[in-house]
Amino acid sequence: MKQDHTQLPFTTRVLKEQSDPSDLLPASYHFYEQVISGRRRRRVADPSQNVAAFLDTELSLQQLESIDKHLWLAGAKRPPTQLHLQVAIGRNIVLADRIDLHLLWSGDGKLFVKPLSRFLLSPDFWQTHLTCHDYCSCSDRVGSVLSMESQPAMESRYPLPPPNTTCKERLRKVARGFLYTYACLISTESDFSIAIEKRLLPRETDDSPIKWAQWQRLVREIIAQHGSSKVHPRFVRAELRLSRINVIHRTKQFLFSEAYFGGWNNYSSFFRDNLAWIAAITAYLVLILTAMQVGLATERLQANTAFQQASYAFTLLAILGPVCMVSLVALRALIELIKDLRVIFRQEKKHVNTSTA
Fold it and tell me: Coiled-coil regions in this chain (predicted)?
């Protein structure tokens, strides 16, 4: 069922309105563009020059959308846990200003949280940039009008959307879901104090924090307007386990693809992590072979053909298995080295060409 695309998630103004709407936006934003080689190149731009392009980057969940059918392996469908409980169970709140990292947690106790953007607390910004035209394709009205009138009759009777106007339903669902996570994270004054201390909430121009009473009114409005069909599917789930997201991402893409986030930053950590699980598997194989040696020393199993064959198979596995696994790790390291060298040589060549121009 389509939702009312013109209804704002809140009307409470928790921050003073800015005289210049561009003051709601960050100073700059980073985005990636595809280059001829197939790799991505990072760029920096002014968000006020193209707000639509900025929002496409700021509210992008493209990487998670590619594995959305498997997110059940990484997190349950439930509201996010309050901040004070996150701290109580030993999680360290780490600021990560990327919405695709919001509420991902790692095995070392980190919980990545995206600070709440200033522009998402402005009803005027929502009205201008996150609501659709009255007769956008995401509106309930379109279906009812088309069922009763012909297209020419509808066009003559109702206003048409401005040229080059795109539907904002996807961005709106991401923004609504993101707001809802904050309504869940900051439930009590204890949560509010943690959020203020961690700088998770935007501040006034004089650096004074949002008032608790204003936050109460805002959260109650957000909860009253909330519905699972109004938010992006990612925000139906609470915290997601980063290690499982990395496994799903690598399995879904390719065995040698990069991790979703938090890959190896140097070759020493790469070999340490990979050789650790190879050593664990090898130790387990040694334990099995030791038990088989004891079995072969008994008269009952010496004449058992099946046990003899199993012992032979495990012996070969113990010899060849670690060799093959170490070879795969070395191959992966070689592939990464070649990729790094290509980037270095390309950048060096570009720098030389720029200097001589």
Answer: none
pTM score over 0.90:
no
Dump pLDDT digits (tens) for 216-226. Answer: 999 999 999 99
Contact 67, 248 (CB under 8 A): yes
Neighbours of 219 (CB within 10 A): 21
Listed in order, strand segments (DSSP E) in the chain are 29-34, 40-45, 92-95, 104-105, 110-113, 240-241
Q: Cα–Cα distance between 223 and 187 in angstroms, integer?
A: 11
Q: Residue 191 has which token pair?
A: 């949560």
- Residue-level length of the chain: 357
355 backbone dihedrals φ, ψ, rounded to 5°:
-70, -35
Domain ranges of the chain: 21-131+168-253, 267-356
**Gyration radius of the chain over CA positions:** 27
> Which one, of 33, 82, 265, lies nearest residue 187 by Cα?
82
**Three-state secondary structure along 47-75?**
HHHCHHHHHHHHCCCHHHHCCHHHHHHCC
